[in-house]
Amino acid sequence: MSFSPGEEGALSQAAPDVNTQDLCHNPAQCVATGNTSEDKVSPVVDEASPSSTSSFEILDMESVLAPYQEVQPHWFFCRQADDNTFWLPFSREDSDKLENSCNTAASKEEEVVVAVDGQRYDVHVKERKCYPVYWEQAPTEVRRCTWFYKGDKDTRFMPYPEDFSKSLEEAYMISVTLNEWKRKLDFPTGETVILHNPKLIMQYQPIGLQDEWISSPSEQTRPRTVKRGVDNISVEITDGEPEKVDHLVFMVHGIGPACDLRFRSIIQCVNDFRSASLSLLASHYKRAQQDGLVGRVEFLPVNWRSALHGDATGVDKDIQRITLPSISRLRHFTNDTLLDLFFYNSPTYCQTIVDTVASEVNRLHDLFKQRHPEFNGAVSVVGHSLGSLILFDLLTNQRTGSETREGLSSWEPCCLKCDTLEQALSKLGLQQYLDTLQAENLDLESLALCHDSDLKDLGIPLGPRKKILNYIRRKKLLEDCRTQTECVAPLPPLTTDHVGNQPLGLATQHSQFHRAQSVTSAVDYEYFDVGIGQVSIDYPQLAFHPQMFFAFGSPIGMFLTVRGLKHIDPSYTFPTCKSFYNIYHPYDPVAYRIEPMIVSDVDLEPMLIPHHKGRKRMHLELKDSFTRMSMDLKNNVLGSIRTAWQSFARLPAVALPPVIEGETTTETDLEETRASAEVTASVKREEKSADFGTKILEWPSAFHNHYFKGVCVEAETSVSAEQTQQPEIKVGMLNGGRRIDYVLQEKPIESFNEYLFAIQSHLCYWESEDTALLLLKEIYDKLGVAFEQPQQ
Are 107 and 84 in contact (CB under 8 A)? Predict the structure, then answer.
């Protein structure tokens, strides 16, 4: 019986042994030698202990014989995580597509490719490999699975290789057809499988060398449980993702190679975020999905770090040479994570980062459009940590339709036609390189398309290269400024206080002229935009206009302040993106707010993101209740004590009748007046004392009705009431006049020690269902799809 030793060796490592002495009392007898799969079990097996034999017979009697039915296969794919191997099932829809393609692939010579998992992966059916489409990743193995095994230390069933499963299925078919059980299958690698009955099938590992004092193989090897068909194992199989894509979202990561505390990559984190969004769509847009109004939202990761680190730039080797040997782990962590912040503030590496993000987003967008030609939805971007700052700077420097055409024309070589190559080199004092450039048939038009690396390949030294590139850049900027002055009205500005409160629209033009006047310099502070402080680099243009920009745990506010921007003009908006949401966890040490930079005269609380189950968390409800309780108790007690003290310490003055000139008051009238005043004062004192006592006696019931009755009411009403009570406040046009800052609700355990959960709070967004639901709600609100809160 054919079976690959390499596959079985890997198989043995993947599944530990299990003790099943209650099923086969004497495994030494069960693993008697046999040559073929058709061999019946040795008589030694029939002479097993009475207890085990009787148990098998009982199972045989209980099992109802049924005609043989071919097993239904299901396709699985392999995933490596933390040095462990997991086999996960494809969705039912993808598995059916793979099975149909497998049946037709035998008659074809070329490879059959099937798109699976929302068309994010391509499976090469004949090769049995799965390749990612949108990102670089090693291909994973896929398998057509029919038989599975598991040991007692395994958490899930593992599929057998296809050859092994085929052999088991043939033996099972013979046993069912002939009704002959207790069959034993021996494989060349020493693996032994015994089919006791349809419900009990065991596999035994190779015994190996036995020591003299070992009495039975059960002390050295333990069997595995074997199951036939995916229906007999506990595994969750989904139906598949909707084919219709309503919205496309690109997600840009922050600093470091890992995106969460489990040290997972951006690809794995985005996969989890996508899975959470699919679950929320099924629960919060169930009716819309049934009516066909809602498909799904596609989330794609944007990885820019690989272009900065490694062999791409060689910066890691340069940093390693100057790193001190002490506290090596801490220094390694710093070099891997925190240095990304310094790289972004460097003109050289900032250009690399921005170019990588823009080119990767454009590449993914084009590739997505090719694979989904029917897609006509909008596109949004998400940035986490430093990724949000990168997107903010990119979106700040985008151009609208007319500006894009003018900007592109400024890049066209026609703007340099005013001079010849010889005249330009003469102005720069570089006539000696004219022959070198003309030998490559270069003129001013083609020279404008050259990069530093191209001129370096021609043998031109660094100094002349910088002069040539700076000359081209100067002419481009001057032409651009002239075009904007004549044709384009400036955008609504971000204002700044440290440059005479001049609007950024004018400041940008000034800064562009400053750039044009700047000579070659690695770090020239005239290269910083006035009021923004962005490094003067060539910001590339995106191939689309994002509908919304979501920032997770973003330091944008801090960076703008450090750059010298004290105030954002309320009329400012991104040129090509009209919605901006700043989402953060209250304990996130990296996150900063945006709204105080726009509305500085009003103390605005951030918008509280509702829990995905439709309420405030219970500990926040209790916290609000106790806060109101303490304030009311303080006011009531102080007011009652003040009233009582005034009533006891001060006697009311006697109101004497006015004395008319010429009249006299008798002594009897005065005494009567005093007596009536004393009686009146006494009555008032008794009434106030009784009123004070009544208040004290009524406090417990009023306390219960006012505070704890409200906690029992459905929390969704309280949340909606709080939101409706808040007045509508305009916070500028950065989000179309809507609120910008949104804060998540901390978990109960996080409220005990905010310092302990600070790092986790910065990395929690990838698994936050509240964050995913906010994105879905904003996306589908613009599509006119109603949000529905599921019943709890």
Answer: no
CB 175 within 8 A of CB 183: yes
CATH of 421-478, one of 1.50.10.20, 1.10.150.50, 1.10.357.10, 2.60.40.2100: 1.10.150.50
Evaluate whether 302 touches 251 at the Cβ level (below 8 Å).
yes
**From 277, 385, 511, 647, active-site residue:** 385
pLDDT digits (tens, 9 = 90+) for 19-35: 333 333 333 333 333 33
List the CATH code of the domain at 245-398+539-614+739-783.
3.40.50
Identify the residue whose tokens are 């291909």: 139
pLDDT in tens, 71-94: 999 999 998 877 788 899 999 999
Q: How do residues 759-781 score in pLDDT, each as one tens digit?
A: 888 888 998 999 999 999 999 99
H or E stretch at 743: strand 741-743
Residues 608, 588: Cα–Cα separation, whole Å = 15
The residue ranges of every structural domain in the chain are 74-228, 245-398+539-614+739-783, 421-478
- DSSP-derived pairing of the beta strands 607-608 and 741-743: parallel
What Cα–Cα distance (Å) separates residue 26 from each residue in 52, 305, 475, 640? 8, 58, 90, 86
Find, among 482, 528, 524, the residue nearest to 504 by Cα: 528
Reduce the DSSP state of residue 5 to 3 states and report it: helix
Helix, strand or coil for residue 193?
strand
pTM of the entire predicted model: 0.66
One DSSP character per residue, 104-130 reads HHTT-SSPPEEEETTTTEEEETTTTEE
CA torsion sign for 305, 307, 309, 310 is: positive
Active-site annotation holds for 446: no
Q: Are strands 245-252 and 378-384 parallel, antiparallel or unpaired?
A: parallel
